[in-house]
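The following block was generated as part of the benchmark described in Methods. Ligand: pyridoxal-5'-phosphate.
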Amino acid sequence: MSQLIDLDQRYVWHPFTQAKTAGLPIPIVSAEGALLQAEDGKTYIDANSSWWVNTHGHGEEHISQAIKDQLDQLGHVIFAGVTHPKAVELASRISALLPGTLNRSFFSDDGSTAVEVALKMSLQYWFNQDQKKHRILAMDGAYHGDTFGAMSVGQRSYFNKPFEHLFFQVDYMGFPSKENEAPCLTEAEAYFKSGEFAALIVEPIVQGSAGMRMYRPQFLDQLMILARKYDVLIIFDEIMTGWGRTGRLFAMNYLQDHPDIVCLSKGLTGGVLPLGLTVASDFIYDAFWSDEKEKALLHGHSFTGNALACAAACANLDLIEDPAFFEEIERIATAHYAFVQHLKEHEAIAHIRQTGTILAIEVRQQEESSYFSGIRDVIYEHFLNDGILLRPLGNVLFVNPPYCIKDEELAQIYASTKRLLDRLLTDDRLQ
Ligand SMILES: Cc1ncc(COP(=O)(O)O)c(C=O)c1O
């Protein structure tokens, strides 16, 4: 065991990990493009973009340089009563990218905090106007983060069982698979009719942690029409779907309408530094604008508006303006599509789906799909042995790589996937 692993095992507590049964962590010492370099000289393709954050690849020069330059100027400064150039540049450029009047950026640290802020904004929006709208509608299977508010609006499961008694009450509509769309709309309308709903929160068109579950933009168009009819605020959690993942810059770009509040993180800094943004429409900001101090959004974090993270995010915005950005996304989407056509009849597959750069394959198994399904470890180990870091969600394996991934690296992932599926055909767990 290397000294690094030895110390890790003594002193580190890893996320989402049962240390007793998990294997040793892979010691990664450097990374470039889509490749991670381990301490022992092995390389791994980062097939899931390091928890879906890394869009332009590791060690992207323009982002690295922007962070270094910023560090020479200003690392971090309090953001209440103070402002700084990179935060202002980021907020104004984000506003220009987003539709409607999504013009007000509130800064936080990550995806979960961006969601917390969105929930507080929407609840206080009504509170500030003396309106008794306090309920929230979320979707079955949702994942919005691991802080308490974010957990409250997420799927209740063994992930959050120990805390469930402390969550605030949230209502859930069903997941709108194609055959289930009409009942879902009826269900949502019945909730909205009560007049008590402050907000609807969704992961637009792809639910990430639920297993990259995809649903039709046309459904969301209909749902948003209902929300508008009953005066319910619409929150989009684009933390996973943002920054080109779905083939367009944001999932909202597939829709006829746009949300009132959007949460951004992950690829916001190209996946290099933690940063969350909750962007609100002007009318929401206006409901906090008052002579009464308590009508302000009394929320903040020590690292709100961190200048290094803002500089990285501005550099990300430069990169997405380059036509090469969407060319790379299109290249990956096209390759995924061809692979789906090639694989779709494979008997080890229960379901295969794709949206943009996200390819998801649900492996057929006897037990019900679950994060802890035994097949998950088989899949994970298989890819590791093939030099690919791919963390399945239970029996769902998915590929959402950095956009700089080379054709040969993608081909390597596809070939390994095919080998795995062929191997699983003879695995007892499928019989
Ligand atoms: C849709 C969505 N929302 C929120 C989060 C939480 O983000 P973070 O892990 O940065 O707190 C995630 C993380 O995977 C996510 O996929």
